[in-house]
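Chapter review: from sequence to fold.
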Amino acid sequence: MDPLCNRVGLGLLLALTLVAARPALPQQSAAPVAVAGKADSAALKGAWKRPDGNYIILVREIGAAGDLTAMYFNPNPLPFAKAQASEEAGVLHASFELQAGGYSGSTYELRYDPASDQLVGVYYQAVAKQKFEVHFVRQRVAAATR
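The token string follows.
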């Protein structure tokens, strides 16, 4: 096997293992719901995989001002230059910007769909100057390492 593939796989496994080592969040039987017209930003926490590829967004924490502590895997780990959550008219939004690894200026503009427990929206690939409709499905940490 290619040594680079081994390092990439180990890097992803290490990153997800570190997340798994954190105290577990309570398991919910259903997706978080809006309360009194407000979106529950905790719904963004976790690992999200794009089914059309090996792309994962891992959201670890959500700050009081909506700043997200998040990482991107393609499967190589890449930090987000910016990651922000916001709420508008009861809809939870998440914006992510990459500035590394050949993705300079590429963005995800996503909204949380509580009915399907998915992140849906648009990926802008800045280098190719193309937009793609995308969605991410929630993954258990163990499933995200496969």
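Two observations follow directly from the output. The longest helix spans residues 3-21. The helical segments are 3-21, 141-144.
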